[in-house]
Fold:
Amino acid sequence: METIPKKHKVWITLAMSFSPNYIILAAIAYFAHDWRTLLRVISVLNILTLIFLSLAYESPRWFIQKGALKEAKETYEKIEKWNGTTSPERQKVLEQLIQKEVLFLEKKKQSKKYYFYHLFYTWNMLKYNLVISFSLLCTGTTNYALIFNIEKLSGSVYLNNVIFGVIRYFFNIVYGIIDYNCPSIGRKHIHRWAISFIIAMLLFVFVTKALGKYFSVNYNSPKSSEKFEFRVSK
Structure:
């Protein structure tokens, strides 16, 4: 992601998120029939991942941070060759960028170092981290509650997983489009809208369950006659 322009990072991250995997995994599980076959298929697919990783280059920025300038330059040159953009002008620009990065890292080493406890060093930092942590906790709890209880829903568990993946991916794409085309809106407002929507849906479920315990509807349809009874429980 470090080689992607800042403006494109969010939508590319969302477009390549885990959401489509819900659809793919549900399809594989449907045709696998049992969990052993499912694991075998997933393991075979991971062989492709190992092949791709062997073809990938190490991060040039990581090389620069470790002081391995020669390796960083070689990696950049291989990437340039792969892209077909190698030229003497770009070589000069590349050397200038590497030297600029080296100077920045040297300056950074001389500056004050920060550690984990600095995340809670001031009241503002404490509030920011508590809000982010609580938001992630609520999001993770809601997400995994849906995943681990999806068999409680009516219908096919495979189709429900596909629908779940489609809904997740749909909102990812919508948010990516909004962030790219309307940067003035800001991620804070979009996050607030998303949290508000989740709270509203959870309240709807809570109220429905609460009213369901108080009100009950009984249907009785014998062959001789049909009866309908609405009862308020005490």
